[in-house]
Amino acid sequence: MDDFVDYYELMQISQSAELQTIQRVYRMLAARYHPDNPETGDTDKFVLLKLAYDVLGDPDQRAAYDKLWEQHINQPMAVFEMKEFVVGIDAEVNRRLGVLCLLYNRRRESPEHPSLSLLDMESRMSVPREHLEFTIWYLRDKGFAMRDESSSEIVITSEGVDFVESNLPSNRIVHKLLKSGERPETRRNRTIEDGG
Question: Distance of CA 151 to CAs 53, 90, 113, 173, Å?
Answer without folding.
Answer: 32, 31, 10, 29
